[in-house]
Amino acid sequence: xxxxxxxxxxxxxxxxxxxxxxxxxxxxxxxxxxxxxxxxxxxxxxxxxxxxxxxxxxxxxxxxxxxxxxxxxxxxxxxxxxxxxxxxxxxxxxxxxxxxxxxxxxxxxxxxxxxxxxxxxxxxxxxxx
Length: 129
Description:
The chain has about 130 residues and is an alpha/beta fold. The protein has five helices and five strands, in the order βαβαβαβαβα. β1 (about 5-10), α1 and β2 (about 30) form a beta-alpha-beta unit. α2 packs parallel to α3 (about 60-70).
């Protein structure tokens, strides 16, 4: 069985290690530590099944990264889940000019994250994407 690929974008090493531990048995993870790295990887023609991104990263934050994805023709339908320790996360998400599939505050519950990912894939599979 081929694992679905998830692009993980976060600058916190501890979060990346935790995500790798929790998700790598079920998914093929591609780890990038900035929005710039992630965008470069995507521009090389890669197309993940899902993107997990932090909002607060240096240089090119998660909001800018996701905005660039959503205005592109290639990735606007790629599901996105935000994992962030940002203050007022719910308010920030509600003010974004694009749709997110889900979001979770850090620290997150690994079981809830797995459920959120599964629910996103179920939704997209049933929509024929």
